[in-house]
């Protein structure tokens, strides 16, 4: 090991300019009441131009008297912990890590301070930039030493965790306190989240808490930018860019060499919407972590995948399920379930248990029904057998519910009384809209016999009247498809319901406005189209897009009816149908109990995620 061409191990320390005595003598004087050398020592340690050799000499002296560094010397230790050790020579880093190990072993009172020092380096350092007297500083994104500095931070954390077994208990609150504000730059958030997930790899007991922390922050971003808002901003940016290019072509068409052509946002992976850009960046990091944790040398590690699934489902129950109108964060579980059919089936079984359990709040049961229907419709990795198995659970449950209500005093349309029932009906209708082709493919006769055996007509015709409260786009498309195959004739009920719908009158500054509530269930489909650019590359191959039915399948009149209700987008027949409501985050304790019946395998811990460059 060499410093400036010298053999570090076989030569005496370099002579450095320093004042006062050594650390041991300085501590002795301080104990007797003489603080002059003590203050001088702190001043020299805080010198911004301190050299590597000086740092090494000081640290060696501190290591020799570490047992004397009690809480009385708290201020001195804080100065030592602020030494600029990251990015220094290997000798400095090695000596500093040795000092940390000795300090936390001999003086556990400094454990929190050491952990805070390490975690504070999980983001790029701020660069002071002022414009017009206003500080607009954010982060130094161009520091090429960041990966090395982060590696050294994690090396320090691992050493501390090795010497102090209770490190994890003190570390999690510090990780939470230091999480950057969600309006920080994408780079700052990316670095911090990446480092949190690295901690979760070598301290696995913290993984669930780390995932909960990250997903809670991502949900705040997710609910603050609706899908429609993001698409509008991106589309406007593309149109403005195209308009600018056309104007430039008109100005400079006489001389092509001076024509400055800007890159179009449509051709880049950067989101114009600032919140969407931050969320996209974090989704890329989270999905990469999920992939690397579940695969070892390119092969799926079943046991590690099951463990990660359990952690994510717990976070789903606590954070994602109670959050209304989140658009993208739930795709982390969608992506994980694509790795193995048993995971997808376990997730569906979990949602089914939530839906049918009367011990859970109705709002969570309704949300579980929405997730179940949306997952069945959109996950193209689900085979028809799984879809039919879920319908065989949902539809009989609906019939049993009707049996229990038809003869009672509550057999009428009321969302507050029958919310889970209506959401389960909508989940069945939505699933059949997307999956009826695959059910009928291969053997039309058997497929029709199966659909007829569901007895959908009884559900549609019951006194609870589910067609009245389901989204009009879902109702009309379901009616069109079931009419095509002569399963149910819904239009009489739809027309009757439309005559009985009372308009909602509300006053505004511009005068009275009369409208009809087309979404009385306040429902949303969690796996509607994914609009984040970079992370969508992992989602698109797994996603079932909406295919507009041909006139040969659904008659023209019916198709026009659906288009009038749904704004007829080429990607999703629900576009414009579900109102863009403000997302609401909530936390409700959930229970999880699911068993995966999969063959076990043993593999080494995943390390690919640790090696991802910044």
From TrEMBL:
One GO biological process term: transcription initiation at RNA polymerase I promoter
Cross-referenced Pfam families: RRN3
Gene Ontology CC annotation, any one: nucleus
Recorded GO MF terms: RNA polymerase I core binding; RNA polymerase I general transcription initiation factor activity
InterPro entries according to UniProt: RNA_pol_I_trans_ini_fac_RRN3
Origin superkingdom: Eukaryota
Assigned protein family: Belongs to the RRN3 family.
Protein name as it appears in the record: RRN3 homolog, RNA polymerase I transcription factor
The encoding gene: RRN3
């Amino acid at each position: 090991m060499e410093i400036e061409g010298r053999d570090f191990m076989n030569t005496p320390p370099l002579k450095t300019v320093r004042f006062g005595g050594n650390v041991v003598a300085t501590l002795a004087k301080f104990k007797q009441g003489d603080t002059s050398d003590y203050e001088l020592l702190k001043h020299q340690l805080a010198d911004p131009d301190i050299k590597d050799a000086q740092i090494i000499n000081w640290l060696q002296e501190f290591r020799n008297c570490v047992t004397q560094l009690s809480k009385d010397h708290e201020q001195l230790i804080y100065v030592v912990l602020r030494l600029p050790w990251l990015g220094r020579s290997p000798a400095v880093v090695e000596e500093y890590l040795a000092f940390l190990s000795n300090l936390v072993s001999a003086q556990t009172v400094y454990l929190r301070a050491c952990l805070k020092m390490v975690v504070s380096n999980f983001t790029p350092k701020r660069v002071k930039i002022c414009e017009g007297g206003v500080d607009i500083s954010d982060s130094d994104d161009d520091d090429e030493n960041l990966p090395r500095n982060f590696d050294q931070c994690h090396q320090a954390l691992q050493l501390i965790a090795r010497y102090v077994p209770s490190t994890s208990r003190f570390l999690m609150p510090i990780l939470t306190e230091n999480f950057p504000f969600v309006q920080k730059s994408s780079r700052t958030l990316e670095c911090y989240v990446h480092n949190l997930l690295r901690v979760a790899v070598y301290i696995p007991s913290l993984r669930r808490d780390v995932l909960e922390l990250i997903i809670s922050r991502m949900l705040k971003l997710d609910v603050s930018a609706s899908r429609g808002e993001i698409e509008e901003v991106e589309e406007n940016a593309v149109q403005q860019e195209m308009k600018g290019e056309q104007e430039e072509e008109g100005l400079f068409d006489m001389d092509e060499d001076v024509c400055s052509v800007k890159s179009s946002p449509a051709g880049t992976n950067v989101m114009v919407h600032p919140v969407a850009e931050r969320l996209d960046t974090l989704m890329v990091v989270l999905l990469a972590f999920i992939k690397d944790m579940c695969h070892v040398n390119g092969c799926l590690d079943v046991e590690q995948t099951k463990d990660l699934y359990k952690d994510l489902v717990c976070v789903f129950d606590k954070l994602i399920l109670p959050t209304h109108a989140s658009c993208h964060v739930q795709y982390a579980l969608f992506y994980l379930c694509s790795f193995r059919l048993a995971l997808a089936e376990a997730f569906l079984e979990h949602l089914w248990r939530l839906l049918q359990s009367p011990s859970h709040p109705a709002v969570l049961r309704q949300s579980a029904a929405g997730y179940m229907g949306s997952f069945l419709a959109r996950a193209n990795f689900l085979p028809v057998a799984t879809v039919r198995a879920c319908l065989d659970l949902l539809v009989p449950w609906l019939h049993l519910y009707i049996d229990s209500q038809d003869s009672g005093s509550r057999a009428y349309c009321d969302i507050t009384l029958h919310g889970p029932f209506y959401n389960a009906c909508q989940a069945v209708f939505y699933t059949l809209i997307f999956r009826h082709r695959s059910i009928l493919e291969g053997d039309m006769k058997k497929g029709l016999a199966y659909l007829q055996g569901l007895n959908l007509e009884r559900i549609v015709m019951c006194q609870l009247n589910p067609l009245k409260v389901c989204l009009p786009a879902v109702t009309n498309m379901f009616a069109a498809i079931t009419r095509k195959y002569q399963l149910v004739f819904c239009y009489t009920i739809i027309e009757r319901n439309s005559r009985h719908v009372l308009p909602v009158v509300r006053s505004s500054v511009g005068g009275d406005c009369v409208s009809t509530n087309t979404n009385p269930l306040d429902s949303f489909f969690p796996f509607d189209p994914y609009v984040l650019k970079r992370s969508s590359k992992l989602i698109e191959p797994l996603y079932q897009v909406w295919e507009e039915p041909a006139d040969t399948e659904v008659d023209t009149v019916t198709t026009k009816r659906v288009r009038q209700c749904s704004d007829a987008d080429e990607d999703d027949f629900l576009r414009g149908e579900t109102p863009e409501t403000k997302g609401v985050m909530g936390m409700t304790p959930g229970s999880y109990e699911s068993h995966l019946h999969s063959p076990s395998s043993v593999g080494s811990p995943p390390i690919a995620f640790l090696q991802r460059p910044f």
